[in-house]
Specification:
With 333 residues, the protein is of the alpha/beta class. 38% of the residues lie in helices and 15% in strands. Helix 7 packs across helix 8. The structure holds NADP nicotinamide-adenine-dinucleotide phosphate. NADP nicotinamide-adenine-dinucleotide phosphate (NAP) binds next to helix 9. NADP nicotinamide-adenine-dinucleotide phosphate binds next to helix 9.
Length: 333
C-alpha cells in the first residue's frame, strides 16, 4: 500500500483529515522505560512512509524532549504530517509534576514554546491536556481560539474533559477532537462522553488503545518492566489486579486467534468499529509493531464478531483503576 492509499478519517466538522490510525509518540521519550533516538526516528519516518501521518505528542512528554525528537523528522517532512500536541500539564525541568494550568497567559506561552521546540510555523491540532479546575473553560478555549486567529494553530482539542465541559467549550469554538482513554478495558467514555462528542460533532481519539501494551499480551506483570517504567504505578499492572486482568487478555487473544489477527489488531479494529469518528493512536517504538498496528485499519469486524467481543468483555471485569488516585482526580473534569 502506498502512503496515499492508507485509510483516512475526518475528526470534527472542520475537515481535519488524518490516517485512520495515528502514532502515539509519548513512549519514545517518557514513561515506558528507555528508548533509542535512532530507532525512534526510524519508526517516525516509517509511519509517514506507510501513510500513518497523524503524530501525537505533548509538551510534557520528556519535558519537551518528545517535541524536539519530532522536530528532527518535521524539518524535512512537515507537509506530510498532521501534527498534534498538547499543553496544560506543567512540569519542572527535573520532571516533577507541578499541576495543571489553563490560564490564558499560560496557553499563549505554552504554544509559542511548543512551536519553537517543534520547529514549525503551526500546529494542526492543539489539545488542552487536562482541564484546569481553577480557570473557567471559556477562558482557556478563548485563549486557544486566539491561537487559531493568529495562525499558530489550525484545530482545537481537549483531553479527558467531561461532557459538560465539552458543551461549554464547543459553545466558544468548534472542538475537532477529544483525546481520552478508550480501549477494550476502559469503556467509561461510552456512557456520556462519546454521545456528547457525537452531539457536538467532536471526533474521538482513543489514547492508550492497547491498554499501555497490556492488552497485546506482551506484558505479563509489572516485574518485567524497568524500574523507572510508569506502569509500575498503574493499579491495573499491580499484583492483586494483574492476575485477573491477564484472564481478560487471554480471552482477547482467543478472539484474535479466531479472527486470524493479533490481539493488538483486534483491540484497534474494535475501536475503529465503534464509529467512523474514532481515530486510535497506539504508541510504539518498533517498526514491526507499527506495521502490525497500522494493519488493523484493514480489518472490518462484523456485527456478529462485535457482539461476541462484547459478550466476552462482559464476563471479564477489569481489576484496578486506570490511574493512581491523583491521576483519577484529573480525568473527566
Ligand atoms: N491525553 C493523555 O492524557 C494521554 C495519556 C496517555 C497516552 N497518550 C497518547 O496516546 C498514545 C498511545 O498511548 P500509550 O502509548 O499510553 O499506550 P498504548 O498505545 O495502549 O500502548 C503502548 C505500549 O504498547 C506496546 N505496543 C505497541 N504496539 C504493540 C504491539 N503490536 N504488540 C505488543 N506491544 C505493543 C508499546 O511498546 P513499544 O513501544 O516497546 O513497542 C508500548 O509499551 C501515547 O503515545 C500518547 O501520545 C495521551
Amino acid at each position: 500500500m502506498s502512503n496515499t492509499d492508507y485509510p483516512r478519517r475526518t475528526l470534527g466538522r472542520q475537515g481535519l483529515t488524518v490516517s485512520a490510525i495515528g502514532l502515539g509518540c509519548m513512549g519514545m521519550s517518557d514513561f515506558y522505560g528507555p528508548s533509542e533516538e535512532t530507532t525512534n526516528l526510524a519508526v517516525l519516518n516509517h509511519a509517514i512512509d506507510i501513510g500513518v501521518n497523524f503524530l501525537d505528542t505533548a509538551d510534557m512528554y520528556g519535558v519537551g524532549e518528545n517535541e524536539r525528537l519530532l522536530a528532527k523528522v518535521l524539518k524535512a517532512r512537515r507537509d506530510e504530517v498532521v501534527l498534534a500536541t498538547k499543553f496544560g500539564n506543567v512540569r519542572a525541568p527535573n520532571g516533577d509534576f507541578l499541576g495543571v494550568n489553563g490560564s490564558p497567559e499560560y496557553v499563549a506561552a505554552a504554544c509559542d514554546a511548543s512551536l519553537q521546540r517543534l520547529g514549525v510555523e503551526h500546529i494542526d491540532l492543539y489539545y488542552q491536556h487536562r482541564v484546569d479546575r481553577n480557570v473557567p473553560i471559556e477562558e482557556t478555549i478563548g485563549a486557544m481560539q486566539r491561537l487559531v486567529e493568529a495562525g499558530k494553530v489550525r484545530h482545537l482539542g481537549m483531553s479527558e474533559a467531561s461532557a459538560e465541559t465539552l458543551r461549554r467549550a464547543a459553545a466558544v469554538h468548534p472542538i475537532a477532537a477529544l483525546q481520552s482513554e478508550y480501549s477494550l478495558w476502559t469503556r467509561d467514555v461510552e456512557a456520556e462522553i462519546l454521545p456528547a462528542c457525537r452531539e457536538l460533532g467532536i471526533g474521538f481519539v482513543p489514547y492508550s488503545p492497547l491498554g499501555r501494551g497490556f492488552l497485546t499480551g506482551a506484558i505479563q506483570n509489572s516485574g518485567e518492566l524497568t524500574a523507572d517504567d510508569w506502569r509500575r504505578q498503574n493499579p491495573r499492572f499491580q499484583e492483586g489486579n494483574v492476575e485477573q486482568n491477564r484472564a481478560l487478555v487471554e480471552a482477547v487473544t482467543e478472539l484474535a486467534q479466531a479472527r486470524g489477527c493479533t490481539p493488538a489488531q483486534l483491540a484497534l479494529a474494535w475501536l475503529l468499529a465503534q464509529g467512523t469518528d474514532i481515530v486510535p493512536i497506539p504508541g510504539t517504538r518498533r517498526i514491526t509493531r507499527l506495521d502490525e498496528n497500522a494493519g488493523a485499519a484493514l480489518i472490518d469486524l462484523g456485527d456478529a464478531e462485535l457482539q461476541r467481543i462484547d459478550a466476552v468483555l462482559a464476563t471479564h471485569a477489569v481489576a484496578g483503576t486506570r490511574y493512581p488516585a491523583a491521576g483519577m482526580a484529573s480525568v473527566n473534569v
